[in-house]
Amino acid sequence: MSNRMWGGRFAEGPDAIMEEINASIDYDRKLYRQDIAGSKAHVAMLAAQGIVTADDAATITQGLDTILSEIEAGEFTFSRALEDIHMNIEARLAELVGPAAGRLHTARSRNDQVATDFRLWVRDTMDTLEEQLTELMQALAERADQHAGDVMPGFTHLQSAQPVTFGHHLLAYVEMFSRDRSRVRDARKRMNECPLGSAALAGTSFPIDRKATASALGFDRPMANSLDGVSDRDFIIEALADASICAMHLSRLAEEIVIWCSAQFGFIKLSDKFSTGSSIMPQKKNPDAAELVRAKTGRIYGSLQALLVMMKGLPLAYSKDMQEDKEQAFDGLASISLALAAMTGMVRDLEPVTKTMKKAAGSGYSTATDLADWLVRVLGMPFRNAHHVTGRIVAIAVEQGIELHKVSLAEMQAVEPKITDEIFSVLSVDKSVRSRTSYGGTSPVNVRKQARRWLKDLAKA
Ligand code: ARG
């Protein structure tokens, strides 16, 4: 049998393979709430404009409400023969309310319908992401405040560089996630325009009121060009690009968690709640959640890439290619959401081993820069010379297999006679971090101030 919705000119029904490649109901049923909201706004507008009668509009609206409760109660039968969520709902509406149902699709096409539904769905998802980012930042800032003065090694090239504080390190991520959050907010603002009323591509001859439907659905305004309205998917691509950048940040923190909780580092203990054991090695406690957060990045980048390629070179306006946007978007955005939730849980529960961190902070000649700075500050030496003198002292320490503060004064004076024993006062890691008071630097006073400022701002967000 040919399709009831569009099969007038068709003599035959679809091949089984056609049905399989064409049907999107298995995944786009997720859009049922948005589809019903869009239809209700549309029919209310049609009635207000005198395009359908108030009676028909009321009948249709009631039918749509019934369908909503059927779906939510799990009592709705989805059919692949009806392709997608839009036609499944409309067909059920016809069963429920009879011929009035056929008036709902006046001045509308599935092309503007799906574009509207999907924008609504992505918009809701962006709102959830924004909240999740706020929660993660809150968790990080709380831990930063608690550990503003706890020293850890700072790395460049994953080699000991200079001591920093654990709080400072965590606040670096707060800054990154705050930029992610502002990208999400920005994208949401840009996408909040309504395609409904674009119809198939050219607009419609019916006297519709696009401002009314746009505002009923919480959009800022109708999209200004009907061809653009039905044919762009940049809003979802932008959402996935924002998710990708955020996933990249998450993956760096996840990687650090994996490194930090290894026995060789021992900087943190992960809570049992976010770890797993091994079926063969009884001693194991593995950071699986962190590893999976790191791994989700690949899926999220993958969905962004898939949609960029799918959209590339598509002529205007709608093409069925665009139906492929949904699974990727659902998967990419569900993945970032899960990754954010897991990371927030890990950050809340992790236990820094401050003694180990501090000990590590003092190894690897990490206060060599402090020594060089002392030569500049106290002896008035140009920094380049100070760098060279310090390098020679480090070489002595390396040769003797000792830490920098264990090199004797006599040996330092053999390199630079003007050095006094005051030098030893700058070689401790605590002194080192306390001295880094420049704006944005790692001194505990700075870090505490920044953490509190964030906590205050985030409480308002
Ligand atoms: N299921 C379709 C999609 O997601 C809805 C739009 C179909 N429009 C069409 N002209 N066949 O893209």
UniProtKB/TrEMBL annotation:
Protein location: Cytoplasm
Keywords per UniProt: Amino-acid biosynthesis, Arginine biosynthesis, Cytoplasm, Lyase
Matches recorded under Gene3D superfamilies: Fumarase/aspartase (C-terminal domain) (1.10.40.30), Fumarase/aspartase (Central domain) (1.20.200.10), Fumarase/aspartase (N-terminal domain) (1.10.275.10)
EC class (word): lyase
Xref: SUPFAM superfamilies: L-aspartase-like
Domain Fumarate lyase N-terminal: 8-302
Name under which the protein is recorded: Argininosuccinate lyase
Pathway: Amino-acid biosynthesis; L-arginine biosynthesis; L-arginine from L-ornithine and carbamoyl phosphate: step 3/3
Gene: argH
InterPro entries listed in its UniProt record: Arg_succ_lyase_C, Argininosuccinate_lyase, Fumarase/histidase_N, Fumarate_lyase_CS, Fumarate_lyase_fam, Fumarate_lyase_N, L-Aspartase-like
PROSITE patterns according to UniProt: FUMARATE_LYASES
PANTHER family per UniProt: ARGININOSUCCINATE LYASE
Highest rank taxon of the organism: Bacteria
GO molecular function, one term: argininosuccinate lyase activity
Pfam families given in the database record: ASL_C2 (PF14698), Lyase_1 (PF00206)
GO terms under cellular component: cytosol
Family note: Belongs to the lyase 1 family. Argininosuccinate lyase subfamily.
Catalysed conversion reaction: 2-(N(omega)-L-arginino)succinate = fumarate + L-arginine
Residue span, Argininosuccinate lyase C-terminal domain: 365-433
E.C. number: 4.3.2.1
BP GO terms, sorted: L-arginine biosynthetic process via ornithine
